[in-house]
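Fold it.
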Amino acid sequence: MSTAILTGPPVAGSSLETDLRTLGFDVRTVSEPTGATELLAEVPAQERVALVDPRFVGHLHALRLALTDPRFPAAAVPGVLTVQPEARAALDRAAGRIPVGAGTAHLTDVLTDTLTEALDRADVGLHHVEPGSLVATIALTPAQREEAREAVAAVDDEAVRLRTAVKSRDGFFTTFFISPYSRYLARWCARRGLTPNQVTTASLLTALIAAGCAATGTRGGFIAAGVLLLLSFVLDCTDGQLARYSLQYSTLGAWLDATFDRAKEYAYYAGLALGAARGGDDVWALALGAMILQTCRHVVDFAFNEASDFEGGAGNAGPAVALSDRLDRVGWTVWARRMIVLPIGERWAMIAVLTALTTPRIVFYVLLIGCALAACYTTAGRVLRSRARRARRTDRAARALADLADYGPLVELLTGGGRGRGRTGSFLAPVMAFLSSAVLLVWVISQPDPASWLTVGVAACSALLAAAAVSRPLKGALDWLVPPFFRVGEYVTVLVLAARSDAHGALPAAFGLVAAVAYHHYDTVYRIRGGTGAPPRWLVRATGGHEGRILVVTILAALLPATGFTIALTALAVVLALLVLAESIRFWVAAHKHGAPAVHDEGEPA
C-alpha cells in the first residue's frame, strides 16, 4: 500500500488525483499544508508515502519516476516528494521541526520543497529525479499553469519512456540491431503484466533450447541453435528495458539477470562441445578454455571496478584517461572501442552466425582469439590508469578485493588469520599472486605427466605465495590484479590436469567443476555490488578457497588412476555446485523477501 497526501485543495481542471491513483496511490487531501504533517503521522511507517503539491503540473511519467522507483529510499522532483519506510523516520523528524504560526508561510507554502531540503541535509540517500525533456514543475499562477500545460502537450511522455528504457551506453550490435524493436517488445510485455523476471527466465529457457539444438551435431541443429541464441539475446535486452520502462527493479531480478547471462553462455559452450563430439571432434578443451577466458575477463572488470573507490576522490588518472576522453569526443572511435572489447551483443552475434555457418571448432578458435585480444586491450588500459593514479584506496575497496581473492582456510592459517599492515603502493601483492599462479602453471604445463606428488608440492608452494599476496591490505595501485591471477591459476590448472589425464570424460567433468567454482565467484561479485557483502566465511572455508581446491585436485590427480580422477572431478563438481547454489538461492530469495534495496544490473561491458 502507498499513500499520497495532497498538501492543499485540488486545483480545478487538474488530473493530478487521477494520475496518482493510476500509479497505485491512495490519495488523501488536506485543506492547508500544515495539515499534511498531521496526516503524515497517521500513515503506517511500513508504507511508502508521498507528499504532492496540488499545483504540480507535469507528465505522468515524471510522476512515475519520482514516486515508484524502488531503488531509492527517497526521491523528489519539484512539488513531489516520496519516502520509503527506511527514510520515514527522517521525514517525520523534518516535518516535526517545521514551525507553525505567523512568519512561517515561506516554509509551508511549498511544503514539499521545504521537506526535500531537510532530507537533503539529513543525508538519507535522497534521489533528485532528472526529468530531462519531461515537465515537472509547480505552477503558482494561472499563467504559469497554462504555460506548463502547453509544455506538457508539446512532449510525448510515452516516446520519452520508450527511449529511456534503452541503456544510454550499449554495444554497437545491441544499439542498432536489437534495441530499435526490443523496446516495443518490452512495452508489449508491460501492458500484459509480464515481469522482468519472467522475461529473464524465458531468455534462459530459449538459450538452453539453443544449447540442446547445438548438441545434436547436425547442420540443421546448428542453424536452429544460432537463431535461438539471437532470440535469447533479444529477450535478454528486453528484460532490462522492461525493468526501466515499468520501473520494476529488484534485488532478486538483478541477480537472476546477471547469473542467467553466464549460465546461458556457458551452457551453450557445452552444447557446442557435445555437438562436436557427435561428429567425432573433441573440442571440450576449447570450450573449457573459452569459459575460463571469459570468466577471467569478467574478474578483471569486477576487480578493477571494485578497486576504483579512493579516499578523497579518484584523483588524476594520467594521460591514459585524458586520451580516452578525447577519443570519446570522436563519434566513430566510440563505437570502435566498444566493439573491440567484444561485449555480449557482438560476442553472441558472432557465436550465433559462426555456429550456423561453420563448425564448433571454428567457433571456439575465433572466440578465443577475439576474447584474448579484447582482454589484452582492456587490461593494458587499466594498468596504465592504475599506474598513473596517486590516490589512496579505501578500506571498503581493499576489503572487496580480499573477498574477490577467495582465499581459504590454508591461507588464513599461513597469514595468522589476518592481514598485516603494509606500505601502500607496494607491488608485493600482485607480484606474489602472479608468482603463485605462474609457478604452478609452468610446472603442470611443462611436465609430460603432471599427475604426481611433486605437483602437489608445487601446489603447496603456490599456496605459500598466495598467502604472501594477501598478507597485507590490498591498497596498492595494481592490487586489483590479485583476484584475476588467482582465477587463472586455479582454472587453468584444472584444465591442464584434466586434458593430460587422457581419460574419457575428464574434460567435461573439469568443465562442470570450473562452472561451479565460477558461479561461486560471480555470486561473490553480485553480493558485493548489491551492498550486501561477500558470502559468509563458512561457505568460503567449506569450498576450500582457491588454494584448497587446487591442492585437492592435484592430490586427486596424483592419487587416482585416470578413470578414478574423472569420477572424483565429477563428484567434486556436484558437491561444490549444490553447496554454492543452495546458499546463493537461500540468500537472494531471503534478501528479496526482506526488502533489500532494489537494484538493477546494467550488464557487463564484456
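The CA atoms of residues 509 and 567 lie 8 Å apart.
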